[in-house]
Amino acid sequence: TPDITSICKDAGAGVNDKENAVRTLKCCPPSVGKTIKDFVFPTDNKVRMRWPAHTGTKEQVDKYRAAIQAMRDLPDDHPHSFVSQAKIHCAYCNGGYTQVDSGFPDIDIQIHNSWLFFPFHRWYLYFYERILGKLIKDPDFALPFWKWDEPAGMPIPEMFVPEKIDGKPNSLYDVYRDANHIKARIVDLDYDGKDKDIPDKQQVLCNLSTVYRDLVRNGGDTLSFFGGVYVAGDDPVANGAQSVGSVEAGSHTAVHRWVGDPNQPNNEDMGNFYSAGYDPAFYIHHSNVDRMWKLWKELSLPGHVDPTETDWLNASYVFYDENEDLVRVYNKDSVSLDKLKYNYIENSKEVFPWRNSRP
Ligand code: C2O
To answer: Where does Cu cation B bind (predicted)?
Structure first.
Protein backbone atom coordinates (compact mmCIF):
# COMPACT_ATOMS: atom_id res chain seq x y z
CA THR A 1 0.00 0.00 0.00
CA PRO A 2 1.21 3.46 -0.70
CA ASP A 3 1.03 5.78 2.28
CA ILE A 4 -1.35 8.17 0.59
CA THR A 5 -2.39 10.01 3.74
CA SER A 6 0.99 11.48 4.52
CA ILE A 7 3.59 10.79 1.88
CA CYS A 8 3.00 11.84 -1.67
CA LYS A 9 5.31 13.80 -3.90
CA ASP A 10 4.96 15.68 -7.15
CA ALA A 11 4.71 13.35 -10.09
CA GLY A 12 7.19 13.53 -12.92
CA ALA A 13 8.46 10.06 -13.70
CA GLY A 14 7.64 9.33 -17.32
CA VAL A 15 6.82 12.94 -18.19
CA ASN A 16 9.52 14.02 -20.62
CA ASP A 17 8.62 17.66 -21.06
CA LYS A 18 7.68 18.74 -17.55
CA GLU A 19 7.97 22.43 -18.26
CA ASN A 20 5.31 22.46 -20.96
CA ALA A 21 3.10 19.75 -19.49
CA VAL A 22 -0.52 20.73 -20.17
CA ARG A 23 -1.76 19.14 -16.93
CA THR A 24 -0.44 19.62 -13.43
CA LEU A 25 2.21 17.36 -11.93
CA LYS A 26 0.83 17.99 -8.46
CA CYS A 27 -1.22 14.81 -8.29
CA CYS A 28 -1.50 14.11 -4.58
CA PRO A 29 -4.97 13.40 -3.26
CA PRO A 30 -6.71 15.60 -0.68
CA SER A 31 -6.15 13.17 2.17
CA VAL A 32 -4.18 14.66 5.02
CA GLY A 33 -5.13 13.24 8.41
CA LYS A 34 -7.72 10.77 7.16
CA THR A 35 -7.90 7.25 8.51
CA ILE A 36 -8.06 4.35 6.10
CA LYS A 37 -10.91 1.89 6.39
CA ASP A 38 -11.03 -1.71 5.28
CA PHE A 39 -13.00 -2.46 2.17
CA VAL A 40 -16.34 -4.24 2.46
CA PHE A 41 -18.09 -5.82 -0.52
CA PRO A 42 -21.12 -3.95 -1.82
CA THR A 43 -24.58 -5.03 -0.74
CA ASP A 44 -26.40 -3.53 -3.75
CA ASN A 45 -29.55 -5.35 -4.81
CA LYS A 46 -28.79 -5.05 -8.47
CA VAL A 47 -25.73 -5.83 -10.54
CA ARG A 48 -24.48 -2.82 -12.49
CA MET A 49 -24.39 -3.87 -16.13
CA ARG A 50 -21.77 -2.00 -18.14
CA TRP A 51 -22.98 -1.40 -21.67
CA PRO A 52 -21.21 -1.25 -25.04
CA ALA A 53 -20.73 2.47 -25.71
CA HIS A 54 -21.76 2.24 -29.36
CA THR A 55 -25.15 0.74 -28.45
CA GLY A 56 -26.08 3.34 -25.85
CA THR A 57 -29.69 4.54 -25.89
CA LYS A 58 -30.39 8.26 -25.62
CA GLU A 59 -31.34 7.73 -22.00
CA GLN A 60 -28.11 5.89 -21.19
CA VAL A 61 -25.96 8.46 -22.96
CA ASP A 62 -27.75 11.43 -21.38
CA LYS A 63 -27.34 9.92 -17.93
CA TYR A 64 -23.68 9.20 -18.46
CA ARG A 65 -23.08 12.72 -19.80
CA ALA A 66 -24.89 14.21 -16.81
CA ALA A 67 -22.83 12.16 -14.38
CA ILE A 68 -19.53 13.28 -15.93
CA GLN A 69 -20.78 16.85 -15.97
CA ALA A 70 -21.64 16.61 -12.27
CA MET A 71 -18.11 15.38 -11.63
CA ARG A 72 -16.68 18.29 -13.62
CA ASP A 73 -18.82 20.72 -11.63
CA LEU A 74 -17.30 19.74 -8.27
CA PRO A 75 -14.48 21.91 -6.92
CA ASP A 76 -11.10 20.45 -7.95
CA ASP A 77 -10.05 19.67 -4.39
CA HIS A 78 -13.10 17.48 -3.76
CA PRO A 79 -12.04 13.81 -3.81
CA HIS A 80 -14.83 13.02 -6.29
CA SER A 81 -14.01 15.81 -8.71
CA PHE A 82 -13.05 15.15 -12.30
CA VAL A 83 -9.55 16.44 -11.60
CA SER A 84 -9.08 14.41 -8.39
CA GLN A 85 -10.13 11.26 -10.22
CA ALA A 86 -7.68 11.98 -13.04
CA LYS A 87 -4.89 12.59 -10.55
CA ILE A 88 -5.28 9.11 -9.05
CA HIS A 89 -3.77 7.70 -12.21
CA CYS A 90 -1.01 10.27 -12.23
CA ALA A 91 -0.01 9.65 -8.60
CA TYR A 92 0.08 5.86 -8.93
CA CYS A 93 1.79 5.88 -12.30
CA ASN A 94 4.19 8.78 -12.43
CA GLY A 95 6.02 8.54 -9.14
CA GLY A 96 3.64 10.13 -6.64
CA TYR A 97 4.07 7.35 -4.10
CA THR A 98 6.93 5.33 -2.72
CA GLN A 99 7.01 1.86 -1.21
CA VAL A 100 7.44 3.36 2.25
CA ASP A 101 4.90 1.02 3.86
CA SER A 102 6.96 -1.97 2.80
CA GLY A 103 10.21 -0.46 4.02
CA PHE A 104 11.47 0.97 0.72
CA PRO A 105 10.93 4.72 1.02
CA ASP A 106 13.29 5.48 -1.88
CA ILE A 107 11.58 3.26 -4.44
CA ASP A 108 8.56 4.54 -6.36
CA ILE A 109 5.36 2.61 -6.80
CA GLN A 110 4.34 1.89 -10.39
CA ILE A 111 1.21 -0.07 -11.08
CA HIS A 112 1.90 -0.49 -14.80
CA ASN A 113 4.15 -2.92 -16.66
CA SER A 114 3.55 -5.75 -14.21
CA TRP A 115 0.91 -8.01 -12.66
CA LEU A 116 -0.58 -5.08 -10.74
CA PHE A 117 -2.03 -3.67 -13.95
CA PHE A 118 -5.38 -5.50 -14.11
CA PRO A 119 -6.34 -5.38 -10.41
CA PHE A 120 -5.34 -1.73 -9.90
CA HIS A 121 -7.41 -0.54 -12.86
CA ARG A 122 -10.34 -2.73 -11.87
CA TRP A 123 -10.47 -1.01 -8.47
CA TYR A 124 -9.97 2.41 -9.98
CA LEU A 125 -13.03 1.98 -12.23
CA TYR A 126 -15.04 0.28 -9.52
CA PHE A 127 -14.93 3.40 -7.35
CA TYR A 128 -15.20 5.78 -10.29
CA GLU A 129 -18.43 4.12 -11.39
CA ARG A 130 -19.94 4.19 -7.92
CA ILE A 131 -19.00 7.84 -7.46
CA LEU A 132 -20.67 8.77 -10.77
CA GLY A 133 -23.81 6.89 -9.71
CA LYS A 134 -23.85 8.68 -6.40
CA LEU A 135 -23.50 12.08 -8.08
CA ILE A 136 -26.65 11.53 -10.13
CA LYS A 137 -28.39 9.53 -7.38
CA ASP A 138 -28.63 6.39 -9.47
CA PRO A 139 -27.62 3.31 -7.46
CA ASP A 140 -27.64 1.16 -10.62
CA PHE A 141 -25.45 3.44 -12.70
CA ALA A 142 -23.04 1.50 -14.90
CA LEU A 143 -20.21 2.70 -17.11
CA PRO A 144 -20.16 2.17 -20.85
CA PHE A 145 -17.27 0.24 -22.40
CA TRP A 146 -15.52 0.91 -25.69
CA LYS A 147 -16.05 -2.46 -27.31
CA TRP A 148 -13.11 -2.36 -29.70
CA ASP A 149 -13.04 -6.15 -29.98
CA GLU A 150 -16.21 -6.19 -32.09
CA PRO A 151 -16.32 -4.54 -35.54
CA ALA A 152 -19.32 -2.31 -34.79
CA GLY A 153 -17.67 -1.05 -31.62
CA MET A 154 -14.26 -0.16 -33.10
CA PRO A 155 -14.85 3.51 -33.98
CA ILE A 156 -14.37 5.93 -31.10
CA PRO A 157 -17.92 6.17 -29.73
CA GLU A 158 -19.93 8.97 -31.33
CA MET A 159 -20.92 10.52 -27.99
CA PHE A 160 -17.28 11.50 -27.32
CA VAL A 161 -16.82 13.42 -30.54
CA PRO A 162 -18.87 16.66 -30.61
CA GLU A 163 -17.43 19.62 -28.77
CA LYS A 164 -20.91 20.89 -27.96
CA ILE A 165 -24.32 19.32 -27.53
CA ASP A 166 -27.33 21.62 -27.93
CA GLY A 167 -25.06 24.61 -27.51
CA LYS A 168 -23.58 23.36 -24.23
CA PRO A 169 -20.14 21.82 -23.76
CA ASN A 170 -20.16 18.04 -24.22
CA SER A 171 -18.82 16.64 -20.94
CA LEU A 172 -17.31 13.67 -22.83
CA TYR A 173 -15.28 15.82 -25.17
CA ASP A 174 -11.57 16.38 -24.60
CA VAL A 175 -9.56 18.86 -26.61
CA TYR A 176 -6.27 16.95 -26.23
CA ARG A 177 -6.84 14.16 -28.72
CA ASP A 178 -5.44 13.33 -32.13
CA ALA A 179 -7.97 15.17 -34.32
CA ASN A 180 -7.18 13.10 -37.42
CA HIS A 181 -7.82 9.85 -35.61
CA ILE A 182 -11.03 11.09 -34.10
CA LYS A 183 -12.21 12.05 -37.59
CA ALA A 184 -11.17 8.69 -39.07
CA ARG A 185 -12.92 6.99 -36.15
CA ILE A 186 -11.83 3.32 -36.41
CA VAL A 187 -9.18 2.60 -33.81
CA ASP A 188 -5.96 0.77 -34.65
CA LEU A 189 -5.39 -1.79 -31.89
CA ASP A 190 -1.86 -2.30 -33.09
CA TYR A 191 -0.98 1.40 -33.41
CA ASP A 192 2.69 2.05 -32.90
CA GLY A 193 2.82 5.75 -33.73
CA LYS A 194 2.41 5.37 -37.49
CA ASP A 195 -0.83 5.31 -39.45
CA LYS A 196 -1.34 2.21 -41.53
CA ASP A 197 -3.58 3.93 -44.10
CA ILE A 198 -5.44 0.76 -44.93
CA PRO A 199 -9.14 0.49 -45.85
CA ASP A 200 -11.54 0.22 -42.89
CA LYS A 201 -12.41 -3.35 -43.74
CA GLN A 202 -8.81 -4.37 -43.46
CA GLN A 203 -8.31 -2.41 -40.24
CA VAL A 204 -11.23 -4.29 -38.73
CA LEU A 205 -9.66 -7.66 -39.57
CA CYS A 206 -6.33 -6.48 -38.31
CA ASN A 207 -7.93 -5.45 -35.01
CA LEU A 208 -9.60 -8.83 -34.58
CA SER A 209 -6.24 -10.54 -35.02
CA THR A 210 -4.74 -8.22 -32.45
CA VAL A 211 -7.36 -9.21 -29.88
CA TYR A 212 -6.67 -12.86 -30.63
CA ARG A 213 -2.96 -12.23 -30.25
CA ASP A 214 -3.38 -10.51 -26.86
CA LEU A 215 -5.86 -12.99 -25.35
CA VAL A 216 -4.73 -16.26 -26.83
CA ARG A 217 -1.37 -16.37 -28.58
CA ASN A 218 0.57 -14.02 -26.28
CA GLY A 219 -1.55 -14.59 -23.16
CA GLY A 220 -1.28 -18.35 -22.75
CA ASP A 221 -0.40 -18.40 -19.07
CA THR A 222 -0.94 -16.32 -15.97
CA LEU A 223 2.14 -14.13 -16.09
CA SER A 224 2.11 -13.65 -19.87
CA PHE A 225 -1.38 -12.29 -19.56
CA PHE A 226 -1.13 -10.33 -16.29
CA GLY A 227 2.45 -9.19 -16.54
CA GLY A 228 5.48 -10.17 -14.55
CA VAL A 229 6.00 -10.45 -10.82
CA TYR A 230 6.52 -7.07 -9.14
CA VAL A 231 6.92 -6.99 -5.37
CA ALA A 232 8.07 -4.66 -2.62
CA GLY A 233 11.67 -3.65 -3.17
CA ASP A 234 11.48 -3.93 -6.95
CA ASP A 235 12.16 -0.84 -9.02
CA PRO A 236 9.32 0.28 -11.25
CA VAL A 237 9.41 -1.84 -14.37
CA ALA A 238 10.37 0.14 -17.44
CA ASN A 239 7.79 0.55 -20.16
CA GLY A 240 8.30 -2.02 -22.88
CA ALA A 241 10.12 -4.42 -20.59
CA GLN A 242 9.43 -8.06 -21.30
CA SER A 243 7.31 -8.56 -18.25
CA VAL A 244 4.43 -6.38 -19.47
CA GLY A 245 1.23 -8.43 -19.86
CA SER A 246 -0.10 -9.20 -23.35
CA VAL A 247 -3.14 -6.91 -23.30
CA GLU A 248 -1.36 -4.12 -21.49
CA ALA A 249 1.54 -4.11 -23.92
CA GLY A 250 -0.72 -4.66 -26.93
CA SER A 251 -4.19 -3.26 -27.57
CA HIS A 252 -4.23 -1.32 -24.29
CA THR A 253 -1.21 0.84 -25.05
CA ALA A 254 -2.05 1.13 -28.74
CA VAL A 255 -5.40 2.75 -27.94
CA HIS A 256 -3.75 5.19 -25.53
CA ARG A 257 -1.31 6.28 -28.22
CA TRP A 258 -3.95 6.37 -30.95
CA VAL A 259 -6.21 8.73 -28.96
CA GLY A 260 -3.49 10.99 -27.52
CA ASP A 261 -2.44 14.12 -29.38
CA PRO A 262 1.03 13.79 -30.93
CA ASN A 263 1.22 17.59 -31.16
CA GLN A 264 1.21 18.01 -27.38
CA PRO A 265 4.52 17.96 -25.52
CA ASN A 266 3.75 14.67 -23.75
CA ASN A 267 1.10 13.26 -26.10
CA GLU A 268 -1.59 14.49 -23.73
CA ASP A 269 -4.07 13.42 -22.70
CA MET A 270 -4.30 9.69 -23.42
CA GLY A 271 -0.71 9.30 -24.58
CA ASN A 272 0.81 9.69 -21.12
CA PHE A 273 -0.06 8.10 -17.77
CA TYR A 274 0.04 11.40 -15.93
CA SER A 275 -2.67 13.00 -18.10
CA ALA A 276 -4.69 10.01 -19.40
CA GLY A 277 -7.37 10.28 -16.70
CA TYR A 278 -8.37 13.73 -17.97
CA ASP A 279 -9.94 12.19 -21.06
CA PRO A 280 -13.30 10.55 -20.34
CA ALA A 281 -12.37 8.08 -23.09
CA PHE A 282 -9.77 6.66 -20.69
CA TYR A 283 -12.42 5.10 -18.48
CA ILE A 284 -14.43 3.47 -21.26
CA HIS A 285 -11.22 2.17 -22.80
CA HIS A 286 -10.25 0.70 -19.45
CA SER A 287 -13.63 -0.83 -18.84
CA ASN A 288 -13.06 -2.82 -22.02
CA VAL A 289 -9.53 -3.67 -20.90
CA ASP A 290 -11.06 -4.90 -17.64
CA ARG A 291 -13.54 -6.93 -19.66
CA MET A 292 -10.61 -8.61 -21.44
CA TRP A 293 -9.62 -10.08 -18.08
CA LYS A 294 -13.13 -11.53 -17.76
CA LEU A 295 -13.17 -12.86 -21.36
CA TRP A 296 -9.71 -14.36 -20.97
CA LYS A 297 -10.94 -16.42 -18.04
CA GLU A 298 -14.15 -17.36 -19.86
CA LEU A 299 -12.12 -18.82 -22.70
CA SER A 300 -11.34 -21.54 -20.14
CA LEU A 301 -8.14 -22.51 -21.86
CA PRO A 302 -5.48 -24.31 -19.84
CA GLY A 303 -3.28 -21.68 -18.18
CA HIS A 304 -6.00 -19.05 -18.05
CA VAL A 305 -6.05 -18.68 -14.27
CA ASP A 306 -5.61 -15.74 -11.89
CA PRO A 307 -2.35 -15.44 -9.97
CA THR A 308 -2.32 -17.32 -6.66
CA GLU A 309 0.92 -15.99 -5.17
CA THR A 310 0.54 -14.34 -1.77
CA ASP A 311 2.50 -11.33 -2.98
CA TRP A 312 -0.13 -10.74 -5.63
CA LEU A 313 -3.16 -11.55 -3.49
CA ASN A 314 -2.10 -9.19 -0.71
CA ALA A 315 -0.94 -6.25 -2.78
CA SER A 316 -3.17 -3.27 -2.00
CA TYR A 317 -4.15 0.27 -2.96
CA VAL A 318 -6.06 3.07 -1.33
CA PHE A 319 -9.02 4.85 -2.94
CA TYR A 320 -11.76 7.27 -2.01
CA ASP A 321 -15.06 5.46 -2.15
CA GLU A 322 -18.45 6.93 -3.03
CA ASN A 323 -18.92 8.04 0.60
CA GLU A 324 -15.64 9.99 0.61
CA ASP A 325 -14.06 7.42 2.90
CA LEU A 326 -10.55 6.24 2.21
CA VAL A 327 -10.53 2.48 1.81
CA ARG A 328 -7.76 -0.05 1.37
CA VAL A 329 -8.43 -2.71 -1.25
CA TYR A 330 -6.55 -5.90 -2.09
CA ASN A 331 -5.91 -7.74 -5.31
CA LYS A 332 -7.48 -10.84 -3.78
CA ASP A 333 -10.85 -9.07 -3.53
CA SER A 334 -10.79 -7.94 -7.14
CA VAL A 335 -11.13 -11.31 -8.87
CA SER A 336 -14.89 -11.85 -8.63
CA LEU A 337 -17.24 -9.58 -10.58
CA ASP A 338 -20.17 -11.22 -8.79
CA LYS A 339 -18.90 -9.97 -5.46
CA LEU A 340 -18.19 -6.51 -6.84
CA LYS A 341 -21.75 -6.36 -8.22
CA TYR A 342 -21.01 -5.34 -11.75
CA ASN A 343 -20.70 -7.12 -15.06
CA TYR A 344 -20.68 -6.55 -18.81
CA ILE A 345 -23.57 -6.86 -21.22
CA GLU A 346 -22.47 -9.38 -23.84
CA ASN A 347 -23.90 -10.08 -27.24
CA SER A 348 -24.93 -13.69 -26.87
CA LYS A 349 -24.73 -14.44 -30.60
CA GLU A 350 -21.16 -13.33 -31.05
CA VAL A 351 -19.21 -13.36 -27.80
CA PHE A 352 -15.80 -13.80 -29.37
CA PRO A 353 -15.93 -12.38 -32.91
CA TRP A 354 -12.14 -12.59 -32.99
CA ARG A 355 -12.10 -16.27 -32.02
CA ASN A 356 -11.21 -17.37 -35.53
CA SER A 357 -8.87 -14.48 -36.24
CA ARG A 358 -5.63 -16.26 -35.68
CA PRO A 359 -2.98 -13.99 -37.11
CU1 C2O B 1 -3.13 3.03 -16.14
CU2 C2O B 1 -4.32 2.59 -19.56
O3 C2O B 1 -3.26 3.01 -18.07
So the answer is: 252, 256, 286
